[in-house]
Design goal:
Length: 92
């Protein structure tokens, strides 16, 4: 499947979202670090580069959003398959 998004695009979008939610909650990086157990320097690196482990992303996400939303992405893709041809697209 062709996509105009790169892995880097998604990483930086996730980092920006977590940072935006942190700021909306009026939490410093230190506050988010205390709540998530992810070190503040790791949060800073994530917010500036998008680089983080999956486990640490999940720890941050559960503090600023609902993990169920991420989990739902896995359920949605299992239930709905992408069309494989133009005929399948037109049939929908």
């Amino acid at each position: 499947m062709v996509s105009l998004l790169s892995a880097h695009n998604v990483q930086t979008a996730l980092a920006a979202y977590v940072q935006q939610r942190r700021k909306a909650l009026k939490w410093s990086r230190a506050e988010l670090a205390a709540r998530s157990t992810v070190p503040a320097p790791t949060i800073k690196k994530f917010e500036t580069t998008g680089q983080i482990s999956l486990r640490q992303l999940l720890l941050l996400w559960q503090c600023v959003d609902n993990l169920q939303r991420l989990h739902a992405l896995t359920q949605e893709s299992a239930q709905k398959t992408m069309p494989r041809s133009l005929a399948e697209v037109l049939a929908e």
